[in-house]
Amino acid sequence: MTFETGNSEAALLTPEEMGRADKLTIESGVPGIVLMERAGQAVARAVGERVATGDKVLFLCGPGNNGGDGFIAARCLAAAGYAVRIFVLKDPAELKGDALEAFERLGPVASNQCGKAIEGDDIADDFISSLGSSDLVIDALFGAGLDRPLAGTVLKLVELVNQSGVPVLAVDLPSGVSGASGLILGGAIKSCATVTFFRAKPGHLLLPGRELCGETKVADIGILAQTLEEISPDTFRNSPELWLGSWPRPETSAHKYSRGHAVVFGGPMSSTGAARLSAGAALRAGAGLVTLASPPDAMMVNACHLTAVMLRKVSDTGSITGFLTDERLNALLIGPGFGVGATTRTVVEALLAANRAIVLDADALTSFSEDPDALFGMIRSSPGPVLLTPHEGEFSKLFPDIAGDKLQRARLAAERSGAILVLKGPDSVIAAPDGRAAINRNAPPWLATAGSGDVLAGIAVGLLAQGVPGFEAGCQAVWLHGEAGLESGPGLTAEDLAPALKSVIRGVVDKSSVGHR
Ligand SMILES: NC(=O)C1=CN([C@@H]2O[C@H](COP(=O)(O)OP(=O)(O)OC[C@H]3O[C@@H](n4cnc5c(N)ncnc54)[C@H](O)[C@@H]3O)[C@@H](O)[C@H]2O)[C@@H](O)CC1
Ligand SMILES: [K+]
């Protein structure tokens, strides 16, 4: 993969990749303790933004370098006049390497303000009494080095901190949250803020970890962006930096045919709304033309509701195939309100055989629950990009044996199906068969409403019609959908989303034209 500036900005690093970034930087001549100083100072600055000089800041420092960051921050804050109290998880004599050096740099602070959080198998009384009177706790127990579930007294310690009600600022990650997956290992600190370094980690964006991070800040500790060329990460934050280069920009001479013609295949008279929502969103996403292909009984109701979206009667698979001889129809969507069953499977087969860019959503996915491999076989023979947009329920029917965290599951499913997988939810993951994956975080909870998924599928097909490659179309659609949800606000209904896209798209266009003038 070529690593462009945008990819670099949006890259997420697993703890293992972050370890390599640290190592490469250290090998290039920057000592580890220098990186730790910068990390600790960034934490100290974040603390300074939250509490005032003289306030009581309690540090909980683990046995590794996460604890080392804590010692540095504690020294800086003690020097700045904060009332610092430091608790090392167990015995400071067991510290090694940079963490030991950071501890020694505490100087007199170590002997005056330092204690052990755990004595034998019990939580130290001194820790319990200090916790109650603290203004802020710094969680520097475990970060990238978390390698097993929290258990025993350590878990009790974490629960005590969570129950105390004292706000927590986490160093790198809330202890107990896996940076790779966002899963909680045994138990985890709940923080109101997290300071991480160089690049965010998947665990900062994926649930449930994201909820425990609070506001996450990424601090620059002097690791160069070029380091990423060697690491070549394939997980990204879904943000315009990732896909602005693929944003469809119509030429000055554009006409509606040059902006693509999307076709949405709608359902029978009793369920026409879903496909209309999709078609309206496809048009708003920028497709030059959108046709709603409708069964005869639904023509009248669709005609009553549509204006800019065109309508075409299709009565059976034969008439669909005939319609698709028009090669200008370059992106297709089937699923919303279409109906589940054998007819749907036949139509999907015909659409995949037509070699167009395709979005398969809702009923088009459920129709293959009994035989998903048949669908994957057809997808693999279709050269155009294919997007699958399942929610968790649809996903588990198509991929019943795929387990793991959300990122792993989306990746495995993309690899197996040969499609771009958009695994929807509050932390949607978009994964490509080549291994790339993006994690989305801008979706507000009020997007969980009837018809919202139909709009998302419509945006995606509208982008595909404009020639956006499959992975980028999935990422752009999910991001635009989230922004439209934010723009519409609480109380939205799916009908609000397409109109809200207008100002969202204006924002992206303004961004994308910077540097293109
Ligand atoms: N030079 C570097 O590598 C840098 C590292 N940095 C910091 O270093 C951290 C990573 O340091 P480490 O690799 O030392 O790892 P950590 O400090 O995150 O944790 C490793 C230690 O925790 C123990 N541990 C792991 N899981 C445990 C569990 N469930 N219960 C009890 N003990 C457990 C391990 O046995 C090991 O002793 C980062 O999160 C970041 O805060 C930063 O200082 C930047 C520079
Ligand atoms: K931590």
Task: Give the helices and strands, then pairings.
Elements: H1 5-10, E1 11-12, H2 15-27, H3 32-48, E2 56-61, H4 65-79, E3 83-88, H5 97-104, H6 108-113, E4 114-116, E5 118-119, E6 122-123, H7 125-132, E7 136-140, H8 152-164, E8 168-171, E9 193-197, H9 202-205, H10 209-213, E10 215-219, H11 227-231, E11 235-237, H12 240-243, E12 261-265, H13 273-284, E13 289-294, H14 299-305, E14 310-313, H15 317-323, E15 329-334, H16 342-353, E16 357-360, H17 362-366, H18 372-381, E17 386-388, H19 392-398, H20 406-417, E18 420-423, E19 429-431, E20 437-439, H21 452-465, H22 470-488, H23 494-513
Parallel strand pairs: 2-3, 2-7, 3-4, 7-8, 8-9, 9-10, 11-20, 12-13, 12-15, 13-14, 15-16, 16-17, 17-18
Antiparallel strand pairs: 1-11, 5-6, 18-19, 19-20
Helix pairs in contact: 3-4, 3-5, 4-5, 13-21, 13-23, 21-22, 22-23
Keywords:
2 domains, binds potassium ion, 20 strands, 11-stranded mixed beta sheet, elongated, about 525 residues, alpha/beta, binds ligand NAX, Rossmann fold, UDP-N-acetylmuramoyl-L-alanine:D-glutamate ligase, YjeF_N_dom_sf, about 15% strand
